[in-house]
Amino acid sequence: MRVHRLLRRRQNGSAAVEMAIIAPVAMLLLIGIIEFSIVFFVTLSMQYAVREGARYAITGRVDKDPATANRERYKAVLASIKSNSMGMYDSLSPVITVNGTSYAAPSSYAANMFGGPEDIVVLRIDCTWNLSTPLISAFFPGGKYKFAVAATMRNEDFPPL
Predict the structure, then answer these.
(1) CA-based nearest residue to 141, from 152, 153, 130, 149
(2) SS3 string of the chain?
(3) Which UniProt keywords apply (predicted)?
(4) Which end of the chain is more exposed for a tag (fewer CB within 10 A), N or C?
(5) What pTM was estimated for this model as a whole?
(6) Residue 20 C-beta-side C-alpha neighbours within 13 Å
């Protein structure tokens, strides 16, 4: 009976010590899993936005251009991509490539960048996502996850603008 009490007294506080050792590792793993989940979510969201933007581009429509006068097709397509990206477009530093021509800044966008009727359009967006977890960002150069999403479609036979 006395030995049992002595052993029990030695184990008091051992759960707290074990928790103090394991908790940081467990929390780091949990935060890493959350960060990877966010990375996959951002990638899939941008893939959806590019696909929807390409689907909009092939119709030749301009109704999504925010300007009411002199609506332009490329602005309407970019507005479609932005609206389908769930607010992530502006935080990704996107570089748009259409049929092999890169457009890094809005000032370089061209009115005919999505081609004419019956043209094949290859829309690709290169994105950079800044990682926030040090454990995860150590595996990526500069703490940035770089990815590209793309869609290829043929323009419909729409009337030229």
Answers:
(1) 130
(2) CHHHHHHHHHCCCHHHHHHHHHHHHHHHHHHHHHHHHHHHHHHHHHHHHHHHHHHHHCCCCCCCCCCCCCCCHHHHHHHHHHHHCCCCHHHCCCEEEECCEEECCHHHCCCCCCCCCCCEEEEEEEEEEECCCHHHHCCCHHHEEEEEEEEEEECCCCCCC
(3) Membrane, Transmembrane, Transmembrane helix
(4) N
(5) 0.81
(6) 5
